[in-house]
Amino acid sequence: MKIAFLGPHASFTQLAAAQLFPDEELLPQVNILDCFIAVENGSVDMAVVPLENSIEGTVSMTLDYLYKTPDIKIMAEAVMPIAHHLMVHPHCVVEKIEKIYSHPQALAQSFHFLDTNYRNVIKQDYSSTAAAAKHVSENPDRNLAAVANTFAANLYNLKIIERNIQDFEQNHTRFIVISKQSHDYSHKNLTLLGKKSGLLITLPEDHAGGLHQVLSVFAWRKMNLSKIESRTLKTGLGKYFFFINVVGKWESTVQYNALEELKTLQIKVDFLGNYSEFLLNS
Amino acid sequence: MKIAFLGPHASFTQLAAAQLFPDEELLPQVNILDCFIAVENGSVDMAVVPLENSIEGTVSMTLDYLYKTPDIKIMAEAVMPIAHHLMVHPHCVVEKIEKIYSHPQALAQSFHFLDTNYRNVIKQDYSSTAAAAKHVSENPDRNLAAVANTFAANLYNLKIIERNIQDFEQNHTRFIVISKQSHDYSHKNLTLLGKKSGLLITLPEDHAGGLHQVLSVFAWRKMNLSKIESRTLKTGLGKYFFFINVVGKWESTVQYNALEELKTLQIKVDFLGNYSEFLLNS
Known about the structure:
2 copies of one chain form a homodimer.
Chain A: E1 2-6, H1 12-20, E2 25-29, H2 32-40, E3 46-52, H3 60-68, E4 73-81, E5 85-88, E6 99-102, H4 104-109, H5 111-117, E7 122-125, H6 129-137, E8 144-148, H7 150-155, E9 159-162, E10 172-179, E11 191-202, H8 210-219, E12 225-232, E13 240-247, H9 253-264, E14 268-279
Parallel strand pairs in A: 1-2, 1-3, 4-14, 6-7, 6-8
Antiparallel strand pairs in A: 3-10, 4-10, 5-8, 5-9, 11-13, 11-14, 12-13
Domain Prephenate dehydratase (chains A, B): 2-180
Keywords (chains A, B): Amino-acid biosynthesis, Aromatic amino acid biosynthesis, Lyase, Phenylalanine biosynthesis
Function (chains A, B): Catalyzes the Claisen rearrangement of chorismate to prephenate and the decarboxylation/dehydration of prephenate to phenylpyruvate.
């Protein structure tokens, strides 16, 4: 199978895609829209894109494109703790590091460590953590370092000299696997966190309590929500859609009846699937 | 007054801050956390940070820091349409442009224009649109171009040769003004879109229908929501808080009674303020 992912090579999304699809062909895309287009026109079977907290893409785009392409569904979700490592070329003299390269947000997320241990070393913004690692690998004669992930270290043959330099432990990124077909995605080597459903809900008009009415449908069935996010359709105007995650496996007709009830209330529902959530390694 | 903003110089956030605070001292910060710290420790009076759709910061961080710093409130919100312009040094021979620099997401957002008009020109990722503009200004002898905003063009004396090259018209970024004191922020020269309130709501436990109960409090009072977003507190665990916007001016006791009712339901509410929403120029 061909799997698109939000690039560049050695991005955090590739780190996720490589764990989700270890034996498939991975194809980097320059942005989230291109991942959706590749799935839409059939040039790939699936794509891996960030859903929450990525430093690589404006992830609200992911919700917007899910809304705009109703034939694209979610096959799986994956959570990855964010881990930044300090890496150098094997020839580097660590005591003489003169510059540290990374994406501005990765440098910011490692600020405390870098400020304590490399205060007088120049920190240089780069377009991505992966590109920073590549730049370090291409300049073995200078004493440069990059803040990037393990995948970048392996790809560019860099040596990790300090692991987990990020300031906060709880930071993580969520990814989804999108597809036009309903592949039954499962993975025997990854930790399964649970099942969930994804829904896109559009209210018939912007009236007070509209969302409350939607949630009533789930509440009396004791269907628990784990995520809810509203997205505006136009600047300054009162048109919204909502992305909702409902916890658990949908095995009885109770859950599917909820969708029917929403439809009778004139509420537009795009059911994105009932899928597994996996824990990835950082 | 001193106003912190998410930098670097000539970032989109500075473009917003300069319109909101034309006569104040603007101080760039390297990340969203530093904006919050500057407000918290009193080294600035207010800060401007992105709330939605920024290409410069992971804006979910803004919600997380609002949650972690309960004494920081919202003074105002501002919406800015995203506009990318193609700019060069005044000495540049436009027909001979050899490279176009910008943030990867700005290049992606201008893909259609660049592919149609500059297909054979190298597109080079840069850490920010502002840094790309600075690089072009520092290399007048080469024929370089940058995709950036009007503020960057003015700051670095670049000539805009093509305006509004972004692919989608409806893209916009939202910013908030944060402060520890309750300044009464108003601005006579900006278009006022309306009033809204911001609330952070934490449920006592992760039970089915908890959010539904919260929304009931607003629904029967005909208080309309314009934004709702859940944020996980820990990876994989069922602890959440919600950021909610309620539309309109809070002038009667009805609205404030809603907050009292939430508290009696053992629901933790951080009222971030009732503030104005402004429309900015791109």
